[in-house]
Input
Amino acid sequence: MKRPFYSLRTGILANLIFLILAAMLLINAVMIKLAENDLLHSRVREGKSLANALSIALQSYLRNPEKTLPLGRKHTLEENIKYLLAQSPYSEFVFVSTSGNRQFTVGQWNQGKEDAVALCRQSIVTGKPSITFNGSTWAVMWLGYENVKVSAPVKIGGRSVGAVAICSHLSDLYTHLRQSEKIILIYIVLNTIILLAAGMFLLSRVVIKPIQRLLKVTEEFEDIETMALAPEPSRNEIGQLSHSLRMMLNRLEQNKQQLKDHIASLERANEELRRTQEEVVRSEKLASVGRLAAGVAHEIGNPVGVVLGYLDLMKDQELSESEMNDALERCESEINRINRIIRQLLDYSRPSKPDSRPINVHRLLVETLDMLEPQPIMRDIEVQKNFNSPKDLVLGDESRLKQVFVNIIFNAADAIEEKRKYRGKQDDARISIETQNTGGTIKITFADTGCGIPDNSINRIFDPFFSTKEPGKGTGLGLAVSYRIIEQMGGEIRAESQEGEGTAIHVILPLFESAE
Output
């Protein structure tokens, strides 16, 4: 969008006006000062000539007072002096004799007569003309002298008999200069307009238009193919700027293509990383499924044996009807037990796509414990459930969160089993599961009474492929996968342990209400 009040043209125009006017006014001030000095010097020269003429007239008068003065007819001395003054810009006259007791004045000496008398005495002493400027008044652009006084000695036979002084007021000179100043100012305005028009025409052709072309290119630039940047013929800074802009746009296009390639590469890498993560999660889940299947196979053998025993009794046909019904009911109960165990295993092992939905944590914990109950490693282990959180709804993938719970509980059971190897059967073989709300989260704590984790290993248990178990008894991915799953749900997981006493795993998840 164009902004005329802030454009380059407006800025240059304002600066040009300022510079031209300043230059014109400075030149005008210098010219006025020079003209004023010239007029003052002319007034002084004229005063000297007039003072000398009056001095000569007084010499003739003093030699022969009765002689006719050279004015074409007989006049008095005062009339002759007034006549000479009327022909000049000087209006006051004073004569002072050498003795100082004779004075003769012509004109209206309102003030400054004492200065004129003093100037006459100075000429009598020096025998030379004297000049002085007195007073102050407004000239044209500054204060100037109000009047000028010129004196000359009157000599007879080479001896000074007195001196004359004349005074000229300078107001008429300043008035003339002020009238000339008005004409000069009009010429300054006209010259400024002409210079601005010519300057803006040249500036627009040399600077503004090339810059506007460059701006148009930068505003319409999309890619190097659509760029319409004609080569700048000039070799000045504008031409250099055009060349630099072309080079910059070329580099931008190259960087743009490189960025596209990097983005495509990152997208491929992210997709590959996502698939790898999915594979790791599935691999760890399959490891858990294999372990669960081994325990289930052992657990199913007992109900199968019971069913087969009852079937053998029913084949003998020696049972009464009530005993027969009782045997059938027991067979049905055992078969349902087998079906429930297999269904739980199938539900857990079934692959599923990540799907975030509200999850009841307490219900999922109960389902996980029911699934693990038939496992041989869970026998003789007391499981305590302390569900203290009134809110347990979280947002996430149910199968993955169940996988986290399975990994943690299996690790707790393995730690208790490891402790049994060295201490024998324990009376305190216990896994405690506690939930509580803290702010907008639910904290799930799995605490066991197992062998614990050494201090130098507690900070590494969430690293991939790190395990404290014996070789062949763990992949080292269980807690690493669990850490990744909890992190993707926006939660956190951390561990506390004391070697030989047990371990506590804390899982903290944001509640679904807070997530909304």
About this structure: Confidence is low (pLDDT under 50) at residues 68-74. The first helix runs from residue 8 to 63. The domain at 356-516 is CATH 3.30.565.10 (Heat Shock Protein 90). The CA atoms of residues 57 and 445 lie 133 Å apart.
